[in-house]
Amino acid sequence: MSVTKFFAVLFGGWLAIANHALAQNPVVGPTNYVTVFFTNYISVTNFVTITNFLSTTNLVMGTNLVMGTNLVMGTNLVMGTNLVTANHLGLATNSLVKPILGKATVVVVPPPKPKWDSVLTLGVTLTRGNSDSLLATSKIVSDKKLVNDHFQLEGDATYGSASGVANSELLHGFGQWDHLFSTNWYDYLRLDGVHDGIAEVKYRFTFTSGLGYYLIKDTNTTLALESGPGIVAERLGNENDTYATLRIADRFEHKFNHDASRIWENFEILPQINQPSVYIINAEIGVESSIYKALDLQVYMDDSYNSQPASGLLRNDVKLVSAVTYKF
Question: Is the overall model pTM greater than 0.85, yes or no?
Answer without folding.
Answer: no
